[in-house]
Amino acid sequence: MPETWWRGAVIYQVYPRSFADGNGDGVGDLAGLRDRLPYLAGLGVDALWLNPWYPSPMADGGYDVADYRDVAPVFGTLAEAEALIAEAHAAGLRIILDVVPNHSSHESAWFRAAVAAGPGSPERDRFWFRRGRDGGPPNDWQSIFGGPAWTRLPDGDWYLHLFAPEQPDFNWNSPDVVHEFHDVLRFWYDRGVDGIRIDSAALLVKDPDAAPDGRDPYTDRDGVHEIYRGWRKVTDAYPGRMLVGEVWLPDQERFARYLRPDEMHTAFNFDFLNCALEPDALRKVIDTTLATHVPLGAPPTWVLSNHDVVRPVTRYGRADTSFDLQDRRHGAPTDRALGVRRARAAALLAMALPGAVYLYQGEELGLPEVEDLPDDLRQDPIWTRSGHTDPGRDGCRVPLPWSGDEPPFGFGGDPWLPQPPDWKDLTVEAQDADPGSMLSLYRDALALRREHLGDGTLTWLPSADGVLAFARDSGLTCVLNLGDAPVPLTGEVLLASGPLPDGQLPPDTAAWLR
Ligand code: NOJ
């Protein structure tokens, strides 16, 4: 594989806690993942992005990291992680690891030391400790998960956490923090990891004391780029490794700064993820994406979902098909059959576009969002921090169904979140041999993509109202009908997301042609 393998790769996101459980404790783990590597290789993906596997109190599903150089016992051991990396490589799969630089865990050695050392200590300088103001917090910042972004210690100091109180924010002005993360990157690159996904990448630099300057006080501050220039230098010493940033920024000009040649290689395309399944809106996002990336020589990424967002099958069956991180529209009426049809079409669109594709576990099975989880089992801190008004993200994190007619559907032990009984029709086993299943569509599409698609450019083709049609460098064309009436097709159909009565492309259907 070339050193720039990531430019046109299909990257499968593994949420380890919910992928497969090898030891029967109801929580997915590395043993379960190692057993299922043949499934992933057979699916036809190029790389795996694993959500955090580090020791963690799990206050935020592992995004509260207590030790960046080890593996949580619930997932396995460092030796198992090394074995997994080697086995994945042998199966032709690269590994991308999640690194969380904005915040730590309140149980990390550094934060414990900071708490113990007391106000004014150098240990506290690695985080954001401040005295309060008028008996309250140092400023009025709110946590992204709800509630105040500051928590007070008994000694009177407050510390900053843009997420949960169990996730104290690092102070990136501290040289210790800068050196620590360079070392963490090297630690994992030395163990064969092929890439790093950078969590909350735009939030690292903040100034709680600064006078308001009209810009967001902690999102996308100019100083953040210096950090990624340092990370790029570390990464460039390891050929074939890459950085992909979680950069949620609506402003494309600001977003593009993260993709300059001496910063990240790629970043997630959240404008595409958020976009409604509407022809004009989609075309605009695709054009803007290409206009942002092409001049920088950075490949776009195409992302329809991840562990933070509503599953496409549910979302696309709603009247409003857009996604909004601030309003998940939990419980909005959804038409499952329509959602499935559209999710199939959207998958063919995403996989035909030039660049890399991210695919969240379970999308290839067409899993819906589970919206009726019992409240007392919900784990997402958003649920408690929103005062039980926002159910949060557990509904897209329910353990995968592999086989059999009843829960746990071959997942392993009693799953940490319950699976709906009607997932018996959505198991890998149930879909495996059915040529009309979502799983077969993904396999077929990924095989064709490997041959004809990937990195490169696209050319828009003339099309009827409500229809998107474009050709790729290989000559393969993709047509997506989001209008109200069937449209005629010209060429040989290689793959379609649904039936084509009379050879025409019905609404909410996509086809690949040659
Ligand atoms: C983004 C991650 O995707 C999300 O799951 C997490 O809660 C926040 N960052 C905080 O780390």
TrEMBL record:
GO biological process per UniProt: oligosaccharide catabolic process
Glycosyl hydrolase family 13 catalytic domain span: 13-397
SMART domains: Aamy (SM00642)
GO molecular function, one term: alpha-amylase activity
Pfam hit, one: Alpha-amylase
Keywords: Hydrolase
UniProt cross-references to InterPro entries, sorted A to Z: GH (IPR017853), GH13_cat_dom (IPR006047), O16G_dom_2 (IPR045857)
Cross-referenced CDD domains: AmyAc_OligoGlu_TS (cd11332)
Family note: Belongs to the glycosyl hydrolase 13 family.
Stated name of the protein: Glycoside hydrolase family 13 protein
Organism: Actinomadura geliboluensis
